[in-house]
Amino acid sequence: VVVVVATIAFTQKPKSAEAVVGGTAVFEAETDKANVKVKWQRSGTDIAVSNKYLIKSEGKKHSLMVKNVSKEDNAVYNVVAGTAKEKFELKVKESAVSPPAGVLGSNPNPACQTSQPHLGRSPTPQIETAEVAAPAAPADVKPEGTPEVTNVNQADKPQDLIGLFLEKPSNGEVNVGGDIIFVAKVAGINLIKKPTAKWFKGKWMDLSSKVGKHLQLKEIYDRNTKVYTFEMCVIKAKTNYAGSYRCEVTSKDKFDSCNFELAVQEASTSEEMDIRAAFRRTGGADGSEEAGELDFSALLKKRNNEKEVKQEISEPDIDVWDLLRQAPPSEYEKIAFQYGITDLRGMLKRLKKMKKEQKKSEAFLKKLDPAYQVDKGQKIKLVVEVTNPDAQVKWLKNGQEVQVSGRTYIFENVGNKRILTINHCSLADDAAYQCVIGEEKCFTELFVKEPPILVTRPLEDQVVVIGDRVEFECEVSEEGAHVKWEKDGVELTREETFKYRFKTDGKKHYLIINETTKEDTGFYMVKTNGGESVAELIVQEKGLEIYQSIADLTLKAREQAVFKCEVSDENVKGIWLKNGVPVVPNKRIKITHIGSRIHKLTIDDVKSEDEGDYSFIPEGYALNLSAKLNFLDVKIDFVPRQEPPKIHLDCMSRSLDTIIVVAGNKLRLDVPISGDPAPTVTWAKVNKVFLYLKVINELGLTHKIFRNLDMLTETEGRIHVESSKEHSVFTIEGAERADEGVYTVVVQNPAGQDKADITIKVVDVPDPPEAPKISNIGEDFCTVKWEPPKFDGGLLIQGYILERKKKKSYRWMRLNYDILTDLSFEAKKMIEGVVYEMRVYAVNAIGMSRPSACSGPFMPIAPTSEPTNLAVDDVSDSTVTLKWRPPERLGPAGVNGYIVEYCKEGTEEWIQAHQGLLDRNSIFIRDLATGNKLHFRVRAVNIAGPSAPATMAQPVNIREIVQRPKIWMPRYLRQKLIRKVGDMINIVIPFQVRDPPTSSWVKEDINIYKKNIYIPITYAQSLHVVRSDVDKEGEHTVWLHFLSGTETLFSSMQVYNKPGPPMSIKITDAWGFNVALEWTPPKDDGNAEITGYTIQKADKKTMDWYTVYEHCRRTNCCVSDLIMGNEYFFRIFTENLCGLSQEPTATKKSVYIQKTGTLYKPPTYQEHDFTEAPKFTHPLVNRSVVAGYNVAFSCSVRGSPKPKIMWLKNKMDLSGNPKYRMFTNQGVLTLEIRKPSPFDGGVYTCKAMNDHGEAECECKLDIRVPQ
Fold first, then answer.
1. Are 1120 and 1073 in contact (CB under 8 A)?
2. Which of 149, 187, 414, 704 is the most buried (most CB within 10 A)?
């Protein structure tokens, strides 16, 4: 197989040129070959034929013409032919004469026509609202009805090359009722994604929702210059349109914005009233000014007529509130902008009151909920209750009536209930539904939740040639699923050149690449919300393969010569040469190539002048196929009648002559013979008679034939003999390996006989090698080894070709493009965790063998990294405990287990410390020799083998480690221990030591080990106090005596009791209904702080005690609301941590509340003011949700009067936005976001306001996109 790559070069290169704006530039190039495909590029982008660019190709000459040159054409250009590429530049200069300032553009929309000069950044003030410009109006003629617009000239400003804008909208002025256009231009040549433009008024008002009667937005794309033009057209401007505007342009991760102003001026009076004309005299016959009378009615009639005309011109009155009442909430903001309503909040309040006045539904007892949600494939029921059991209902879906379907939609009537059942919900059922009874309706929305989409059939690797069409195919689990295609991590989109095409057929998704180039090589990925698949595309240089070359011929006069060759490309043409001169066809010489890959040169009646060297050269390729035609001159000599037979072979000797034939080709042995009389010809194979013909033909030749019966059944019609007077031709059609051997031809007549042996060797492609073996498998590589084939096809094996594929795929990918001469190969660039198979071809001079059997499936995977944090947990005289952490890198195969080995210091013999694999991260090793120093190491094992070992820096000495005792002081003992008198105390102090210690408890140098204290000797030391008395209070010391030393602990204890009563109590004053008391603190506070006092009173008549004050912290109080004419006693209890004192202190004498003669005047109380500023009692909480699922924020607020609520997103008001629903119930505020997308993420603020102030709270919403 011969692979040839075409080489093309430029004999004339295009030169850089300069052009003037509006002029024409021409570039010319010439190639060394004719009819070569040439591409022209501008800044790396292919140029297509258009009104601006004209491309011509005539033979070897090629030209590019750039018409109407502009500043944007100032760039670097390329011309590409095959692998040759030349660069040149076009430099654009400003023209000497500028166009007139009054040139206007034409707008395809009549409503947007304006006479305003261009408001952009271009030096020429021309509005480019369409691709074709209108003819310019004269400078002194102003079109009728054209508003006066101030020209804002931007020619003197330097061009801003930073950002996305080529041309920014500029400030403008317009009269009331006039039109104006603002233009922004963006260069799209360097943008990955199509830019989008948004127009805003002020800081936040998006004008895309205001498009209508007075505002239009337009977008134009010029494919030649790759420039996007965005226009905003203001029609019949009003005074409230004046203000600041902003244009924002976004393209993927790039962003740019610019601000501009619009000024709207009052229009001047079109004509002034001619007062003198109004007061002209009428009725004068002589025509003098004094003749006739003054006509005052004419003036009045004129004014009345003007008013009538204005009323006729004015629009009919429209009830905006009726229009708002009937419109959906999403249209409120648009209607308000159209009719000049600026107070949106007041408008919504009025609409809310108007809707509250609507009557209660007469047809429905229970309506549909606002929204329902169901999983895809599940069933849902929509239920309403009607007042009339006999009422007929009608169900609508997106405004269309739902028809009964036994499989999908089922209608049910159960009493007052009307039920719509939807079976096997699909994405098509995600819609708005209505239930209609007469003229009444109730609405709801059904949201169908889609399950994760899985990739059921992955992508397959492909190897193609430049210019081929590539089609990636995958299959997902659901029809109609949304998938995303990526190349090397970058998302693919449908470009203007339609290089990538996306096709969907049910569950199958296709990515189609037309005319692949070398840049298309890479990894392509398809992603769904539940899976992904990766495939590799390799694009090779296109070459020409020669399947059959032309062969040398030796012919005699009047015979036919046929030169034939076969190439891989059907469209390749070529020329035939004889001795370097092109062959001219005629009646005797024919050249054929009819829609196939075979090229033929046929020469009938060969003559001696036809002898020479013949060549075939494919067009466009550096290739020359040649062969030689030898002319055999036949001389006629006189032969006597009795001439012995003779075989005339090329070799003079009669030894074996070997003839090589390719298996499957035709073998033709033409043996010249002579003899008189005509000899008998016998063909035979050694040890087997093949053919012996004996036939008397027209020439008088005698032939005999004998056939082996077995061979006859196998080769019937494949082997035959053709004989003439001077030749015997032995032919084998489609030579096979069994035809190889020594053939003998024998000619005999009465005058004698002659014999010759001919050796025929049949060569073929080699047998397929044995299945290759895989070894040394790594993370993304492996080593492939194989053995030579058993049969080499009769020729030397030149090398091998290796292919691989994924286990579940059917597409094989070639790994080597140069033939391998070794019997092993290291395959790389495989995906870890994917199962692969390998196969190998053997190649000799004939061609490639059939593929070998597939190797065993294998997975490229690397061992894990070494375990981490290997450490000794415990060691004794004969044991050691080791612990470690899993490896940092596990890989797709994970960890099957661990191997722990140890080695004595000074030796290199590693001994495994266990049998099999460990499935845990620790090990306890026994029966070790005391005093040895051992090295330990741990390996992680997976399917790829053991990892690198984790070792310790120092050896481990197998000897028990003597440690000091460890004592853990409980946290509650580090502070003062407070207990009540009489309570049981149990103090536990844990410690750790090998030998049991002795202990003692000491309080202030006195051992308190008595009958009411128990000290056990355990590993958890405890002090058990049967009864806590005051004598236990103080500093305690715990002594623990070990063999290795003594440890001490310190603790403090406080014992408290009930306090005593106050020392004394006295009545300091009594007036009206009040008594003032004072007392002194108690002498005994119960060893705890006094927390307060309890004051009680008792009527002398009943002596029933009632509590007046509790927890009084002062030592005085005033008892009020006593009854006149009664006598009272008072007593006081002391209170501390333990409780009230057991005995109170009481007054010795009673107090009499005297009666007075004055009238009781009840006190006046000022009414309490319940008003307060808003305050959030429960704030908003940050949320993180998955895109596509509804989310709701809730908070609670209080305030009087009831506050007004406003929801904000990133400081922008959400009122009137249909995507957001807001509820208020008993002070609980709720904001619901339907099907949020990543753009809905941000900071949400709830703001409450009333006359006394305002409050706000905020939270952050994070939207997660499912992977």
1. yes
2. 149
Pairing of strands 1045-1056, 1090-1099: unpaired
**Residue 46 β-bridge partners:** 41
Kindly report the three-state secondary structure assignment for every residue of 18-45. Answer: EEECCCCEEEEEEECCCCCCEEEEECCE
Q: Can you give the pLDDT at residue 355?
A: 60
Q: What is the DSSP string of 1088-1120?
A: S-EEEEEEEEEETTT--EEEEEEEE-SSEEEE-
Q: Could you tell me the domains of the chain?
A: 17-93 (2.60.40.10), 166-264 (2.60.40.10), 364-449 (2.60.40.10), 455-540 (2.60.40.10), 546-632 (2.60.40.10), 643-692+707-763 (2.60.40.10), 773-858 (2.60.40.10), 869-958 (2.60.40.10), 1175-1264 (2.60.40.10)
Q: What are phi and psi of 506, to 5 degrees?
A: 65, -120
> What is the rounded distance in angstroms from the CA atom of residue 167 to the CA atom of residue 153?
13
Please name every residue paired with 882 in a beta bridge, in sequence order, or none if there are none. Answer: 872, 923
Three-class DSSP category at 1201: coil
For residues 89 and 14, the answer to whether their CB atoms sit within 8 Å is no
Encoded amino acid at 48, one letter: A
State both tokens at 187: 């260069």
pLDDT at 962: 65
What pLDDT is stored for residue 823 in this prediction?
92
The residue whose two tokens read 């009958």 is: 1011
- The DSSP call for residue 809 is -
Residue whose C-alpha is closest to residue 258's, from 163, 400, 158, 379: 163
Are the beta carbons of 106 and 92 closer than 8 angstroms? no
Pairwise CA distance, residues 898 & 948, whole Å:
11
The neighbour count for residue 968, using CB atoms within 10 Å, is: 11
The CA-to-CA distance between both ends of the chain, in Å, stands at: 48
Question: What's the rounded Cα separation, in Å, for the pair 1244 and 1217?
Answer: 14
337 membership: H or E segment, kind and range: helix 332-338
Task: Identify each DSSP E strand in 276-324 by its residue range.
Answer: 281-282, 293-294
Query: H or E segment at 323?
Result: helix 320-326
The span from the CA of 1087 to the CA of 901, in Å, is 66
| Angle at the Cα of 1019 from the Cα atoms of 1016 and 1023, rounded to 5 degrees | 35
In the predicted model, residues of the chain with pLDDT beneath 70 are 1-8, 95-162, 203, 267-319, 340, 342, 353-359, 406, 494-498, 595, 622, 634-641, 650-657, 687-717, 961-964, 993-996, 1004-1033, 1042-1045, 1156-1159
Quick: pLDDT tens for 798-807.
Answer: 999 999 999 8
* Beta strand residue intervals within 1188-1252, DSSP E: 1191-1200, 1204-1209, 1212-1213, 1220-1225, 1228-1233, 1242-1250
DSSP code at position 1188: T
Integer Cα distance of 49 and 1 in angstroms: 40
What pLDDT does 1262 receive? Answer: 93
Which amino acid, 164? L
Alpha carbon separation from 653 to 649, 668, 725 (Å, rounded): 9, 21, 23
Could you say which DSSP state residue 331 is in? G
Residue 772 in contact with residue 839, Cβ under 8 Å? Answer: yes
Q: Are the CB atoms for 872 and 26 separated by under 8 Å?
A: no
Q: Which residues pair with 530 in a beta bridge?
A: none
Place of tokens 């409503």: 111
Q: Distance (Å, rounded) from C-alpha 680 to C-alpha 723?
A: 10
- The pTM for the full model equals 0.36
pLDDT of residue 1132: 94
Structure tokens at 441: 């309706």
Distances 864 to 219, 888, 921, 950 between C-alpha atoms, Å: 56, 8, 15, 12
* DSSP-derived 3-state class of residue 138: coil
CA distances for 637 relative to 558, 634, 640, angstroms: 19, 10, 10
